[in-house]
Amino acid sequence: MTKTNLKTTTAPIYAHSADCPKLEARLEDLINELVASSLSAELLAQSLAGGMDDIATMVRAIPGHEGRLIERGIALVARCNPDLVVLTQNLRLPVTATALQLVGMNEPQHYRALTLDADHGGRKTYTPDLLIVNSRTKVAHVVDAKRSLISYESARIDELKTRMLAAALVVPDLLYKEHHRLVAEEVRIVILNAQNRKTDIDAGIWPMSHLDHLVEVAGAGEAIGLLQQSFRSRITANWELARQTFVRPSSHRGSPSLPTLVVVEEAEPDDEAVQNDSEDAVTEADVEPRLIKLGFAQVPARH
User: What is the pTM of this model?
Assistant: First the structure.
C-alpha cells in the first residue's frame, strides 16, 4: 500500500475545533471510566498476585480497551461539529449475497446508484464502529476504526472493505426508517488507522491524522493521538504502582523481579457478527434504483 499525505498548506480551515476545555474534560472522563473499570492499580496488583496467567490475560485485554477508547473518542470529537449526526449503537448492517455480488463483480459506477432494502437482510452482518451523517451535505460515512493494521494482511483488508461496501448499500434505507427519517444521498466507507501507517487514502484507508477532514473539526486527529498517549501513560503509571504495592521491601536475596508492561500487537477480533455462512438471498426485484452514491471517503479538494 502507498501512503498519501495532504500538504498542510492546502488543508482547509474548519469552523469547529477540538481544542476546547469541554471536550478535553469529556476525553479525560472517558479515560477515567475505562481505567477504573479494568486497569486500575488495584486490579493490576490483583493480576500480579494471580500469577502469569492472570498477567497475560490482563495484557492481552489492553489493546481491546484502547480500541474502544479510540472509537468513543472519535464520537466525542465528531460531535464538536453540530452538522454531524453520530451513531454508535445498534448498527448491525445486513450483508446480503446480492450486495456482495454487486460489489465483487462490478465497478462502483455500476452500482453506486442503488440502495437495498434494510429489511431484506441475510444471516451475515457487518457492524461498523460509527456511522456519521452530515445533515448539511447529506453524506454518510461508514467508519471502521482500527488501533493498528499491522497484523492485517492485504487480503483481510480487502475482504473488510468489500463487506463495508456491501453493508453500505442498505445505509440510506436504514437511516430513513430507523433514525428519524435521516437522509443520506451519498454513502462512503473509511477505515481509520490510529497507527498512521499502512494507509491508502484513495482506497478508503486513512491515517487518524486525517480525521479532521472526515468530521470537519480542526485538530480532531491530534486529539485522538493525545487521548491514546494519556491512556497509555495512565496504564504505565498504574502498572508501576501495582508493582510497588505487590513487591514489599525485603532484605532477603532473590526478591521477585516483576516484568515491565509490554503490549504485544495482536490481530483484532473480526469486524462482523456472523451467525451462519448461509444467507437469505435478495432478488433483483427487491432492489429499487435510487439516486444514492457509494464509494470510498474522499479528502477535501485542494484550494
Answer: 0.81
